Fold this protein.
Amino acid sequence: MKYCAFLRGVNVKGTNMKMADVCKVFKDAGMKEVGSILASGNIVFSSDKRVEDLKIILEKAMSEHFSYEAFLFIKSQEETEVFWNSIPFDKNDNFHIYSFVGVPGVEKVLMEEFQKTAKAENERAEIINDIFYWQVPKGNTLDSTFGKVLGKKNLKDQFTSRNVNTFEKVLKKMN
């Protein structure tokens, strides 16, 4: 089966790694047809193992190889298609749209956090198919109140986010 592993915290805040090295870790851990998309830690691969086992194997391999606490979220090709096909916002050059990949139920936690924050004009969030989507004006992502919430240490093992355009690139690589 084809999967994508979405790694959290790659090439930010001092956790730097080359995607070629990450791909080698995946291959050494027994994954097949390994490739990367962008430098943000999106690794497409094939395996016959169960997702739960893959998560354990790959987080351990990444943690040991790169000497950091690795968190990754694995989605099948079918699940990744849902992320791309469920985007609730129209594309607009003035906004970024993010989707959040994480543990079951994290979308509700993120919505609660979003509802507590001050928002920029037209900053919105929706949950579609148990997936949290966030639209934010370009240039406001890191400065927004909600953007700051995303870095909370107590959430670091719960989710990672990607610009929705990344899902299109991942799916092209999977096909």
Remarks:
- The chain has a mean pLDDT of 92.
- The longest strand covers residues 95-102.
- The helical segments are 19-28, 51-66, 77-85, 106-116, 145-149, 164-174.
